[in-house]
What does this fold into?
Amino acid sequence: MKIDLTDTTASKINKGLVQARRAIGTPAVGMVLTLVVVTDEENAYDALKAASDASREHPSRKLVVIKRVSRSPRDRTQSRLDAEVRVGTDAGSGETVVLRLYGEVSDHAQSVVLPLLLPDAPVVVWWSVDAPRDPSSDPLGALSQRRVTDSYAAEKPVDELRSRAESYEPGDTDLAWARITPWRSMLAAALDQVDSEIVSVEVAGEESNPSVELLAMWLADRLHVHVRRAISAGPGLTQVRLETSGGPITLHRSDGAMATLALPGQPDRAVALKRRETSELLAEELRRLDPDDTYASALRFGVDRLGGIQSAAERAEAAAQPVPALPVRAVPEAAPASAPASTSASASAGASASASASASADQGDSDRPTPAKMPPVKKQEG
Amino acid sequence: MSSSNPLRDPADRRLPRIAGPSGLVIFGVTGDLSRKKLMPAVYDLANRGLLPPGFSLVGFARREWQHEDFAQEVHDAVKEHSRTPFREEVWQQLVQGMRFVQGTFDDDDAFERLRDTIDELDKAQGTGGNFAFYLSVPPRSFPVVIQQLKKHGLADQDKGSWRRAVIEKPFGHDLKSAEDLNRVVHEVFAADQVFRIDHYLGKETVQNILALRFANTMFEPIWNRSFVDHVQITMAEDIGIGGRAGYYDGIGAARDVIQNHLLQLMALTAMEEPSSFSADALAAEKEKVLGAVRLPKDLGKNTVRGQYAEGWQGGEKAVGYLQEDGIDPKSKTDTYAAIKVEVDNRRWAGVPFYLRTGKRLGRRVTEIAVVFQRAPHSPFDHTATEELGQNAIVFRVQPDEGVTVRFGSKVPGTSMEIRDVSMDFAYGESFTESSPEAYERLILDVLLGDSNLFPRTEEVELSWKILDPIERYWDKHGKPAQYQSGTWGPVEADEMLAREGRSWRRP
It folds into this structure.
């Protein structure tokens, strides 16, 4: 069942949802959350498909927000909202509303989304592309318990990681982090079997793949040893090598599917480590809606403290250039001043903590930010 | 060792519990259970990344197979029955650890070969001497296999490794045989290394009973004799005995289903809150409930057994039980059993629990229905509430897992007419990694050594103490009632509830 609504409003869309449910004769199924997908026309199809597939595990109302870019200045001053209500088989499990925002209203997407949220159920926002610099103070991000970004889709992933670390708020998470769960789990399983001390680590992978940095930062954060980030041809992550007092442990994957685990004194073993679909990553994200402290801790370790990464001096040079070309669609300057204000205190504390961390990078690991130095975990409001 | 592993952190909730280095040996690997459930479950676990690298699967059976034939058989079984999509790289990981050992259970050479195979796997695959032996074999072979494992040193744990035994129902056919079996098994394997599979306990919905009861506030206050009228636990099958005549005849529905599955479901529904979610605390509460079960004095009036007769089941003609191949036409085996029990404690005194199971019933369904008392006073007149039944909370265990709440609601448009409506909670359909099969969960728990979801010796013996008097009564009195295939059981069962002013739900 599909209802098209042209030049509409949120209340008409709500009526459309009720009407569609009636028409197919089934009541609302037990939807557990609202998933807001923010995307553009180019990525809308893939994003919606991933969200629908993930909704089979997490029945949800999916609100797809597509901001349309108008060509002419005259169109830009006009404001229009078109909606497509899908209920039933074409909506995965739950309901889908595709919202197309033209002109001025596209800067006020939260006004359309707010009335359409499921009552009393968690809200998750996923920016499939063009995530805002500071997700929690974004008007849409402020509505949600969990904010999913994807630094893999960013133009400059390493910069993206830096800005994520600066603006981190509990509830932020990154699909690039979800991508490495199988690697992390395999490495943890490998260390279950080895008793020797770890001396140093090298993580190798594609150049512009932030998952490699995240894995390296996680290892550095947990193991307190020097971790080097190396570049390989890919695909994705290719190798993790842990030097231990008992010999090297390597997990090597050259084809993006099948990996080999080598432990000192043990036979090599094949391990399936397939790169996963977006829908699976999203389903993993939706499984837990509490803050991911492990991610926060790894992220705040700071990319600049990894070996093999563009040095702080080079970075400063890059930063001296006019605005870094982050592919962030500028959040309108006129964004409500009150919302970010409440978060700015802790955000700047986060920034200073990571700044001091990167400054002291070469003084060794004793100076890594302890949890006490990190900004306090902020309670979710509303 | 994992506690000192710097990469493990309890706060890191994304990391799944992966079993340590280990292998699984399946006896009776050519059987139906192995092909339809065990092999696919092993694959699904591997596919979800929950098996350790180097995990090994050893098949033991009489058939003349090479390792490759065995791998091919597993491959076919996995392709046909696995829940998650088939992926070549996962298969490649698994196939390296697959071995087959040909032999019979009394063949000493075969068990020597099995030991060599395990030693070889420790070297080639790094399984570290940790093996679980899954006995998917007829009950009469249990003692032989267990003794052989002992004789050839396969049950010996050394250097921090473990050896575990996994056994399937039936755990005996009465209290005495169950005790004998337990003695045989425990002589070789320590009590905490024996895992009894009751696959119902591996189901998500069954674990959800605990979540629903103990994580919420709105159910527990009414979960007692002040509000609950009675509880019905049903496990219905639409199939007949199929080719299992040899196993089934003489055992019957009550021993096959009530003794294990239904009493376990009852224990979870009726038990008090455990002090923690640990295996010991759970078992303690379940044992208290099973120990508090009282049978009615008049077993003749409060139990019913039946046999399916010829009839039509779901559009197909079905033969009666006595006409099935291999069944003695004079057999008194029950294919339907319904019993009433009470739980004699402060919470449940006077609340009947009706348990029923049967083959060739209306449809395949398992559910637990907690039926509440009627409102003590109704401001509406009689005609308004004529259609109103009793409120109920129903756990749908299978199929279509979920929870239904039934309550009265006004019919729109009428002056005042109140009728039953249902509010449904359904688990999402299976996709990506949702709703694992019960066997996946249970096999993983065996490899992890987590015995939460496995009934213990004491529970098995307590269950037999409940069922034995009923079986003895049935042996001496009367014979099974006949019911038409495809219906909801014999009229005697309906009469049993009607005498108390109640009726069975149509699930």
